[in-house]
């Protein structure tokens, strides 16, 4: 689950609610990792064998991912339900749920 950057400043109640949510997911064994991501970043692209590195921030910084939660659940529906609960806690904004492939 990823969340996009927002202009809203968090308040103390948000930290309390998120703390409870994180504790619940950790106790249930579904939360594997969380973290915030720097807003700028570096873009690495390749075209015709040439590699280009560009420092951020980028023009559409509001579209960048601001944080993530890596969860292990039994179904897509369960992941969506956790994302819905997250959005209810943090309010307006956008999150993206994507499956991670691999071991």
UniProtKB/TrEMBL annotation:
All copies of domain YCII-related, residue ranges: 9-86
PANTHER family named in the record: BLL7171 PROTEIN-RELATED
Name of this chain's protein: Uncharacterized conserved protein
Family: Belongs to the YciI family.
Organism: Saccharopolyspora shandongensis
């Amino acid at each position: 689950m990823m969340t996009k950057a927002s202009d809203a400043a968090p308040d103390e109640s948000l930290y309390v609610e998120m703390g409870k949510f994180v504790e619940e997911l950790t106790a249930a064994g579904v939360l594997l990792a969380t973290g915030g991501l720097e807003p700028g970043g570096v873009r690495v692209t390749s075209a015709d064998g040439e590699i280009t590195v560009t420092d951020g921030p980028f023009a559409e910084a509001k579209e960048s991912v601001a944080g993530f939660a890596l969860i292990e659940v039994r179904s897509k529906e369960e992941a969506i339900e956790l994302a819905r609960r997250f959005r209810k806690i943090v309010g307006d904004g956008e999150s993206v749920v994507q499956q991670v492939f691999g071991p």
